[in-house]
């Protein structure tokens, strides 16, 4: 682990002044991923996600530079997170109440800082404070480095999901037990 790495947890209110920096890291991390990854689309995503009940961000800084972050929120009863799920899942799999599942929406590290343990540190810090029974995330099937990392961190495949938004890629759904119910 990098000795000068500083992790910090933020609520939506604390993160409002960081939006431009969050967008910069997003664009850097997705620089080679195609035209879908734009500042405008990501700003809209952040504007939709940050007001969610329980939204939480963990940032990683080296000196004063934001080098990565992870954020997510608990899925409420009205969640559309599971919309577009392709495969059949066990009864109750998509039932949400705001306490059952924490959705990890983005885990990003600037390209020049990748493969140094920063993503793992962010991941572990965020999930260590959560009280939900499980976490979920979506990962592109063609993102082999992320797939390998999630495998090694204990995430299990749970199907495929195609979001309804225009041009959204097909994702693999991953889940992982967290919180007090995992014992």
UniProtKB/TrEMBL annotation:
Q: Which PROSITE patterns match?
A: GNAT
Highest taxon above the source species: Bacteria
| Pfam assignment, any one | Acetyltransf_1
Q: Which Gene3D superfamilies match?
A: 3.40.630.30
Q: Which InterPro entries match?
A: Acyl_CoA_acyltransferase, GNAT_dom
Residues in N-acetyltransferase domain copies: 5-177
What is the protein's name according to its record?
GNAT family N-acetyltransferase
Native source species: Micromonospora chalcea
């Amino acid at each position: 682990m990098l000795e000068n790495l500083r992790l910090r947890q933020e609520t939506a209110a604390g993160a409002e002044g960081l939006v431009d920096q969050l967008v910069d890291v997003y664009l850097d991390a997705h620089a080679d991923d195609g035209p879908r990854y734009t500042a405008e689309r990501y700003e809209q995503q952040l504007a939709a996600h940050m007001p969610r009940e329980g939204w939480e961000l963990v940032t990683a800084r080296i000196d004063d530079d934001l080098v990565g972050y992870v954020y997510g929120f608990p899925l409420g009863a009205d969640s559309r997170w599971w919309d577009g799920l392709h495969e059949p899942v066990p009864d109750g799999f998509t039932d949400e109440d705001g306490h059952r599942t924490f959705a990890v929406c983005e885990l990003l590290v600037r390209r020049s800082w990748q493969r140094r343990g920063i993503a793992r540190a962010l991941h572990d810090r965020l999930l260590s404070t959560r009280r939900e029974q499980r976490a979920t995330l979506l990962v592109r099937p063609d993102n082999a480095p992320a797939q390998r990392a999630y495998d090694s961190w204990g995430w299990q495949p749970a199907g495929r999901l195609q979001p309804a938004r225009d041009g959204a890629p097909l994702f693999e759904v991953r889940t992982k037990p967290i919180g007090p119910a995992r014992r």
